[in-house]
Write a structure and sequence with these properties.
By secondary structure, the chain is an alpha/beta fold. Helix content is 36%, strand content 19%. The radius of gyration is 21 Å and the shape is elongated. The protein binds S-adenosylmethionine.
């Protein structure tokens, strides 16, 4: 089909489904609809209801460019500029990791330690798009949340998300792990989903990971460099009775538990994500 023949929603979808057919692990119709509904700023049901609706030449060119980006395996979230997490629509850019569903396990566990009526101090280290901090802010409006990252560009995206979602109780701070926390300040809850993929892990070449910021993913030969730095840094910043919650790889639970034990944490426990994989380890600062 020639590009100038793409005059309607139905024809645009037809072309896109054809082009996307070769991308592994995709549902071409779904992706074609998600991209077109993002471009038109309409729900997918609109595309079904109005197949004969005409596209402007600008809309057609933009859609073709979106499909071309996708055929180069660029993740959909970077093409549309957004991703849903905890039912919140978050802006994402190539400066931020695309929030993953398994990180909702970390949020669920953190909420168990934050009573609705308490104004706890919470830190989210390595906030990226702000996903974890935003999810906690949406559920616990009384908390004061500090979201940190060493990437100034990621923090700008996070700050825009907090502002757009109306979360006035979330602030940002730039810096390396615990160095981004105000000296002497102690938090009731510290959460982090740090980089935890080992250098040389074959997954880094697949599933769109090459498009994501590599410093959001890679963490030394065994994937534990950043988890270790966070665990050794938190005792200076966690309040007595506080909790540290860390997301990690499915095969890192035992090593994270022993790092927490060495650092003086107690009541250490690893929880599984919805796929049954070890995903979050929690430690208590007594
Ligand atoms: C796996 S991503 C998690 C992003 C976000 N929290 C989420 O769950 O979607 C890790 C984040 O840690 C940040 N990061 C990496 N190294 C860091 C460091 N040394 N100090 C602070 N932040 C760091 C990255 O910029 C990235 O935003």
């Amino acid at each position: 089909m020639q590009h100038d023949q793409i005059t309607t929603i139905a024809l645009a979808l037809e072309l896109a489904i054809d082009r996307l057919a070769d991308i592994p692990d995709t549902i071409p119709r779904l992706e074609a609809e998600v991209l077109l509904s993002a471009l038109l700023d309409k729900p997918r049901t609109y595309l079904v209801a109005w197949p004969e609706m005409e596209l402007s030449p600008e809309q057609r060119d933009s859609y073709i460019s979106m499909i071309e980006r996708r055929t180069r395996h660029e993740p959909i979230a970077y093409i549309t500029g957004c991703r849903e997490f905890w039912s919140l629509n978050l802006e994402v850019t190539p400066d931020t990791l695309i929030p993953r569903p398994e990180t909702e396990t970390l949020v669920e566990l953190a909420l168990e330690y934050i009573p609705q009526t308490d104004a706890m101090a919470v830190a989210d280290l390595g906030t990226g798009s702000g996903a974890i901090a935003a999810a906690i802010a949406s559920e616990r409006p009384l908390c004061e949340i500090l979201a940190t990252d060493f990437s100034a560009s990621a923090l700008k995206v996070a700050a825009r998300n907090f502002r757009r979602l109306g979360f006035n109780n979330v602030h940002t701070s730039a810096g390396e792990w615990c160095q981004a926390l105000p000296p002497g300040k102690r938090f009731n809850i510290i959460v982090s989903n740090p980089p935890y993929v080992a250098e040389g892990d074959g997954h880094l070449a697949h599933d769109g990971l090459p498009w994501e910021p590599q410093r959001a993913l890679r963490s030394g030969d065994d994937g534990l460099d950043d988890l270790t730095r966070i665990i050794t840094g938190t005792p200076e910043h966690i309040a007595s009775g506080g909790w540290l919650l860390l997301e990690h790889g499915f095969d890192q639970g035992d090593r994270v538990r022993s790092l927490l034990e060495q650092a003086g944490f107690s009541t250490i426990h690893t929880s599984q994500d919805l796929s049954g994989h070890d995903r979050v380890t929690t430690g208590h600062w007594a």
